[in-house]
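Hi P.,

Sorry for the delay on this. The queue was packed all week, but I finally got your sequence through. Input first:
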Amino acid sequence: MTSPILTPRDWASHPPYLSPGYRSSISRSPSLPLIPLKENLRNRRVPVYGADDLGTLDNDLTRNAAKNGEPLGERIIVTGRVLDEGGRPVRNTLVEVWQANAAGRYVHKADQHDAPLDPNFLGAGRCLTDNEGRYRFMTIKPGAYPWGNHPNAWRPNHIHFSLFGEYFGSRLVTQMYFPGDPLLDLDPIYQGIPEHARHRLVSRFSIDTTQENYALGYEFDIVLRGPDQTPTE
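Then the structure:
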């Protein structure tokens, strides 16, 4: 098999490692020069995740953790295509998501936000893309939450995405936001993305994806590399 030729990353579309407005980046950003890896490392394939490892409800966050009823909140469908730098579909690749519940609370011991946990909502899911590179999740629209970065700081509604693509060079962790959210103008994580690329992180409302009498639909395409790459988290 011929190894792919990967295009350079478009670093101008990503936030800087050190962004003082995003306070925790001060301690997480590199303080020494990066060490380049051997050239052939970028061409190694990632581990293969087969469909046998996925459960039938892994992509339905409204049911994959239900114990005694349905989770609270607004049901939504999130779908889109995963594409490579040439606009080609990335098939059979693992897409993972995690998010807060409708009240803005994560199921994690580090989250001590004074908001209720939902016993029927875990806030995590995964699926494989199909032959057109399409993924699909059923979930609950996440709530905003305070995060202590600065006075009266609130994160916009968002869903975290993690993708590997076909190679280590196409690894991507990012966030999906919702159109019209007023908190986007105040959020240093979103504002840390160069202005010309911010729209790549905002989903599109889709009446065609919307399921009548049940859930609103949003579309969010993800480009793993190249000049139109989805910005990283």
